[in-house]
Amino acid sequence: MILALAASLLLASGVQLPRAAAKGDGSSNFSSDELRSLAAGKLVRRPVAQRRGDLHLIGGTSFQVIDAPIHVVWQALLDTQHYPRMMPEVVEAKLVDKAESKRTLFMRQGNLSMLEVKYFLAVNLDSKRRDIEFRLDPSHDNDLRSAYGFYNLRPFKDDAGRTLLSYGIMADIGSGLLVSLARDTVHEWMLRTPWLVKRFIEGSGRYIYDW
Description:
By secondary structure, the chain is an alpha+beta fold. The chain has helices spanning 32-39, 70-77, 83-86, 177-190, 193-202, and strands at residues 44-52, 55-66, 90-98, 102-109, 117-126, 131-136, 148-156, 159-171.
């Protein structure tokens, strides 16, 4: 089955991904070439593909500097209704349940040329650290077997006006001939989410959020 995956929302369980922005601006975790790319507004990707048990996992981590303060990027990442505008192949996103630091989201992904996939995510928020963790919610019926991921936000090089968005994802997108043919394309898109978030926030998002 072909899954038109939104890179920001599928991360298969059992894989630990590095968080380059865990402390400060995370600059010590980047090469000089990566730092130059980030400063120039380019996306930095670190793709990963591996097998774990019966899972065939693809994904990795990616990083993007956004020309907006952290509180603006945080607002956008919590703005479920606008996910289709900042995440690839998201057709529908709904906030099902909301508490102080926990949320449940319903996601529907796909397009007219690909099969749709529907699932629920359990989301944990750390508003003080500006960290988000999500995983597949097993209490609901899901088209996915297992999933989890993260976002975190830090100032880039102590610049309060720019935010380093770090993002991690892994996913098993299924098996079969069609999936095998689409796997490389899906893998490429999975790590583009930070760039799409940047494009949205610096574009039409500029008129939506409290700068």
